[in-house]
Design a protein that fits this description.
Elements lengths: L2 H16 L2 H14 L3 H13 L3 H17 L3 H19 L2 H15 L6 H17 L3 H18 L2 H17 L3 H16 L6 H18 L2 H18 L2 H17 L3 H18 L5 H14 L2 H11 L3 H13 L3 H13 L6 H17 L3 H18 L2 H17 L3 H17 L3 H17 L3 H18 L2 H13 L10 H9 L5 H11 L4 H8 L3 H15 L4 H10 L4
Length: about 550
């Protein structure tokens, strides 16, 4: 290099080290005005990457790759090839082409001595294995390779980033204790300043937050979101900041800070749409989930549709079907979501299993529900986190209630309420209270049932969760008011004659017996479709049957149809 060229390249590299991306770009542009070199092009590509200048990124890196390749500089060509793989996936969503670039890098590094490029390739290949291929075991193996190379070449950056990815993969596979131990080590390393490379620092923190999201360990996630957000703002790390905000929104949603969740998601999605449109799917899907929880189902549908094939959107569509009482579609969509996730992706399967259990139970498919519950319980037992244990307890309560074991259901629902409340999750706590109120009502404990329903109503009202609020009010309205004195004998006799059913529940079953759908029954009785659904569910619990047809047959045998 000429002295002038070398001075500009050195200035650009120094600016990159300070996080001054605009200054770095100007320096590399000046270097290229003097002479086109691979080093200056690679520097320009990195500065442009931080500035979200996609066209400049691809042009600079593709030209740098060609020059390195022509010079037979295989490590440098491989390094840029790995970057182009990431760029192609992030900016354009072209995963097949990204895979091609990774394979090219592997071939270039064959028979080369250990170098940072080997660790860089192992890291990005591991991320692809985990997030795109759904193989946490392969990802863990590649992360271990990155760690080994980092240690061999004395690079704390790659060692720490490799450990972060390894912990993420371990947690995804259900080995939560080992994974968290690894991630705690990562946190200590980052706090100690062992990671200097901004890209690898950001990736290590992102893997930690994403892993916490998988197991709903939102206390840990909150701490790291705050720390990463501060770093991103300080150094202008806009791409990582946008991704971090998307993940932070899940923390806000869990804790009931829905206004904050919406602000973070909207800002992050707008930022990514402007520069990395292929990465907007997660933010859009999370916005859809927020709208679903708010009871704005049409808006949720729009967001899920915009998110396309993102796994979160697929699960969201299944949840929407359940909200609309289309149990068959909910079950099929939940099963479809789970079929795409390998069994070894344990923690990622939990939400889909919870929905499948609810849908299959409501459909009367006890065997399928029990099988899914067994898997969810195993995941929760391995994870040992309160939110996953709460999810398993809630699901076990649903199965027990619809199987007629109201006492067991009560205990499960109480555990779910306690665990969700401990985890600071008001929406999930309120949902569990509604189920508890329903089963307490079936046990004749109407005072306790009414109290749980009222508390759920208060929690849903504060969240403005309109659909769930209406359901909770329906449960409260359907509870028999406790009498100040023991009921008269004729009242007891009439209740016994109805098999323990309320007048409204019997009325609904009579319309079921003539083949009317929930929607048709709702129109006939001038009540909501959701209220009809809950009347049927209560009747199944009281009659200790698992299907609508069995309930009709039971009341027919009692001679009260």
């Amino acid at each position: 290099m000429s002295e002038t060229l070398l001075r500009h390249v050195d200035a650009g590299r120094a600016a990159l080290a300070r996080g001054e991306w605009d200054e770095a770009k100007r320096a590399f542009d000046a270097a290229l005005a003097a002479e086109e070199t691979a080093e200056a092009l690679e520097g320009l590509g990195l500065a442009a990457w931080w500035l979200d200048l996609a066209d400049v990124v691809f042009d600079a890196r593709e030209r740098a790759y060609r020059i390195y390749h022509e010079q037979n500089n295989r490590p440098s060509a491989a390094r840029v090839a790995v970057w182009l793989a990431w760029d192609t996936a992030a900016f354009r969503g072209e995963h097949a082409i990204a895979t091609g670039w990774l394979q090219r890098a592997r071939r270039l590094l064959d028979d080369q001595p250990p170098a940072p490029e080997h660790a860089w390739l192992a890291l990005r290949s591991g991320v692809a294995a985990l997030l795109h291929d759904g193989s946490p075991e392969h990802a863990a193996a590649l992360a271990a390779k990155a760690i080994s190379i980092g240690e061999a070449i004395g690079s704390s950056d790659y060692t720490v980033a490799g450990r972060a990815l390894h912990g993420y993969a371990e947690i995804t596979a259900g080995r939560v204790t080992d994974g968290l131990r690894t991630l705690d080590e990562v946190s200590a390393s980052v706090l100690a300043g062992e990671v200097k490379d901004y890209v690898l620092m950001g990736l290590a923190c992102c893997y930690l937050i994403a892993a916490c999201d998988r197991i709903r360990d939102y206390d840990r996630a909150t701490q790291w979101c705050d720390r990463l957000t501060e770093s991103c703002k300080k150094w202008g790390l806009r791409p990582l900041f946008a991704v971090c905000r998307t993940q932070y929104a899940s923390v806000c949603m869990w804790r009931g800070a829905w206004d904050e969740a919406e602000r973070e998601l909207s800002a992050a999605t707008d930022e990514l749409a402007a520069c990395r449109p292929a990465m907007t799917g997660e933010g859009l899907a999370r916005l859809g989930e927020l709208r679903r929880r708010q009871g704005k189902l049409d808006e949720a549908t729009t967001f899920f549709d915009r998110a396309g094939a993102h796994p979160m959107a697929s699960l969201g569509r299944a949840m929407l079907a359940f909200d609309r009482d289309d149990l068959k579609a909910a079950s099929e969509l939940a099963d479809r979501y789970l079929r795409k996730l390998p069994l070894q992706n344990r923690t990622e399967r939990a939400a889909g299993l919870e929905l499948l259990i609810r849908a299959q139970t409501e459909l009367g498919n006890r065997v399928d529900a029990a099988k899914a519950l067994e898997e969810l319980r195993d995941i929760a037992a391995r994870a040992q986190t309160d939110p996953l244990r709460a999810s398993a307890s809630l699901s076990a309560g649903v199965v027990a209630a619809r199987s007629g074991d109201a006492e067991a259901a009560r205990r499960h629902f109480e555990d779910a309420v306690d665990l969700f409340q401990k985890g600071g999750a008001p929406f999930e706590t309120a949902r569990s209270r509604v189920e508890l109120a329903r089963v307490l009502g079936a046990l004749g404990r109407t005072d306790a049932a009414a109290e749980e329903a009222r508390r759920a109503i208060d929690e849903f009202a504060q969240l403005h969760a309109e659909l769930e609020l209406a359901r909770a009010r329906d449960v409260l309205a359907n509870l028999s008011s406790p009498a100040p004195a023991p009921p008269a004998q004729d009242q007891v006799a009439r209740r016994e004659e109805r098999g323990g059913l309320t007048v409204r529940e019997l009325e609904v079953l009579k319309l079921v017996s003539i083949g009317l759908s929930n929607n048709a029954i709702a129109e006939r009785l001038f009540i909501s479709e959701h209220t009809v659904h809950r009347h049927v569910a209560n009747a199944l619990t009281k009659l200790n049957v698992s299907s609508r047809s069995a309930a009709v047959a039971q009341v027919a045998r009692l001679g009260i149809l």
